[in-house]
Design a protein that fits this description.
Elements (H helix, E strand, L loop, with lengths): L1 E12 L2 E12 L3 E5 L6 H8 L7 E6 L2 E2 L4 H5 L2 E4 L11 H9 L7 H10 L13 H13 L5 E5 L7 H16 L3 E6 L2 H7 L2 E6 L2 E7 H7 L2 E7 L13 E7 L2 E6 L3 H8 L4 E7 L3 H12 L1
Parallel strand pairs: 3-8, 3-9, 6-7, 7-8
Antiparallel strand pairs: 1-2, 1-4, 4-5, 9-10, 11-13, 11-14, 12-13
Amino acid sequence: MNVIEINKLTKYYGQARGIIDVSFNVGEGEIFGFIGPNGAGKSTTIRTLLALIYPTSGSATIFGKDCIRYAPEIARDVGYLPSEVFYYERMKVIDLLQYAASFYKKDCSKRIFELAEIMDLDLKKRIDDLSFGNKKKVGIVQGLLHDPRLIILDEPTSGLDPLMQQKFFDLLLEENQKGATILLSSHVLSEVQRLCSRVAIIKDGQIIKLEKISDLTENNYKKFKIEMKEDIRREYFEMAGINNLALEGSKVSFLFKGNINLILKKLAYVEIENIWIEEPSLEEVFIHYYEKEA
């Protein structure tokens, strides 16, 4: 069963491009990555999905219900963390969270205190006394306090220090193990690689790739780093399947896609001091896709 189904979702702001024919599904219990640089259309897709803005054309459903028509009903089971959080500055954190909890018609007090402890959040402070990172923690607690079935996160870790990011990732995995489906939008590709099973890559408002993380990195590309015994000419490595070639004297690095035996046969004719063959990071693959599309 799909928790999210998006079909040719399009949004224009007047003549300006928002998103064009965006389509993908997120299965129940999945952690799904939605990646692209700032301005690619990630937030527009999410805001349309949450009925914060209306689409120009296309459709989307959450829990099998049209996301515009049934928006209030859907919202009861969705936790949302926007990329930027804005609150009533003069309120105390605990008052704000209790106010947010009041919309869900159930007692969320215990969960608020649990989440605040995990995220090291001082509930007694006023919102306007908080740093950007602590305001982000308030957003995380607010998004999770009602035990949502679907969690939608838009650039969730900006402002969090590395230790708090780790706590947050652990918290997300715990929520997922309890049955929550997660849509994680980010331009920090290591986050997506670490948490997600599948990923959609968006560029200029359009999906350019939809694939399993494992297929995107393991099956398609290998990263080579080689130290030769002597300098080698660039032309030697100009062959089909080699991308992102970097040559510096006797050192060469590249991404290779294709039958790995072909490149190993070629390397048998040169003197090698050291060689490393590893899986490329999602970031390296992602940059290659963008260069290829361009």
